[in-house]
Amino acid sequence: MMLLYIDWKKTVPRIVAAVPIILVALVPFYTTNMVTLSMFILSGIWAIAAMGFALILRTGQFSMGQAGFMAIGGYTSAILTVKLGWSFWIGFLAAGIVSGIVAFAVGAVVLRVGGAYFSIITLSLGEIVRIVAQQMEGLTNGARGLLPQAPNPIDLGFVEINFDASAVPYFYLMMLLVAVTAVVFGQIGRSRLGGTFYSLAANQILAEHQGIYLMKYRVMAFTVAGVFTGFAGAFYAHFMSVITPYMLGLAQSIQIMIMSIVGGVSSLVAGPIIGAVLLYDLGEYLSKLQVPGLQALVVGGAVVLVLVLLPKGTGLVDLWEKFWRKVYHEDEYYYDD
User: Fold this and answer.
1) C-alpha distances in angstroms, 295 versus 39, 95, 182, 225, 326?
2) CB-based contact 225:52 (threshold 8 Å)
3) DSSP letter (8 states) at residue 222
4) Is the pLDDT of residue 334 over 50?
């Protein structure tokens, strides 16, 4: 007779971590308030983009243009649905593909320079996307932007999912998208590929001496991040029912970066999600207090505290691992996200 062995040192933290996820999934059963659901939906969108940033950073590169890829995804889906009359689902898939192709093409060129030059080029890319969207009025309606519609209702026979009726369908679509992104990025983080990415950031010269082709893996990470960031942009455009050249620029790229760093880039999944949920919801709450500069002051203070008080390269997610090491009185405890 085989005895089932359970590693409680890993199982208990995972069960505890699952509790808030379950509670969030049940939010529409407690309230269908548009403001409340919108905060969770937008937090999820930014979490996906933040995971993409963390993946790129895992290879040692610092991208300042992630909002540009959100804009590419958003405009791709909006143009296909508004101008050509395609369905949301086709436009959504096309958004990720187009954003991924652009990321691959750009990465194959600019990732050769690396370092600060790469950051500057990606920052410029975001501005180029904004300018192109502003000038190509025949395709993007310029500064007026495009007004993408909600996905068509889905008739399952026993129930109809109507995205125009409430924000609940958007909420669960966001949960599904975040879950898929988390599974993909989590698998990458735990795989040999993820270890290769990490080695590039840890010691580029040593990685090269071990026969690792830097460009190949950096372009790979940049492309994967581009695909999912494009999905986030498409979802964002349709949920907001508008996409303009001014919605996704440098400020949003910095926001994505801050969310990742505060949450903790040591984790490709948990850190960015924690950072996105905490900072977005906190920012929304502070903005309602109508105190000039308060939101920027608090968010900036949070970044400084994380950078100063926590070890280099760690964030709020690392406090979770530290907590369980204290609970089990161990010097080393590893928690997989």
Assistant:
1) 16, 32, 28, 28, 34
2) yes
3) H
4) no
3-state DSSP assignment of residue 243: strand
Task: Please count the structural domains in the chain.
Answer: 1
> 141: buried, middle or exposed (CB in 10 Å: 19+, 13-18, 0-12)?
buried
In a domain, 281, yes or no: no
The answer to whether 84 and 142 have CB atoms below 8 angstroms apart is no
166 Cβ neighbours under 8 A, 6+ residues apart = 32, 34, 37
Distance CA 9, CA 7 (A): 5
Does the pLDDT of residue 170 top 90, yes or no? yes
- 309 found inside a domain: no
| CB 182, CB 51: distance < 8 Å | yes
Nearest to 150 by CA among 79, 230, 69, 237: 237
Phi-psi region of 230 (alpha: psi -120 to 50; beta: other; left: phi over 0): alpha
Structural domain includes residue 22: no
Integer Cα distance of 161 and 156 in angstroms:
8
pLDDT exceeds 50 at position 336: no
The two structure tokens encoding residue 303: 């970044």
Structural domain of residue 241, as residue ranges? 33-153+160-248
Span of 20-24, 52-56, 178-182 with lowest mean pLDDT = 20-24
DSSP of 28-46: HHH---HHHHHHHHHHHHH
- In a domain, residue 236? The reply is yes
Q: Using the predicted structure, report yes or no on whether residue 135 has a pLDDT greater than 70.
A: yes
pLDDT confidence of residue 323: 76
pTM score: 0.90
Tell me the C-alpha distance between 275 and 261, whole Å.
7
Q: What is the mean pLDDT of residues 53-62?
A: 88
Per-residue pLDDT, averaged over 23-52, amounts to 91
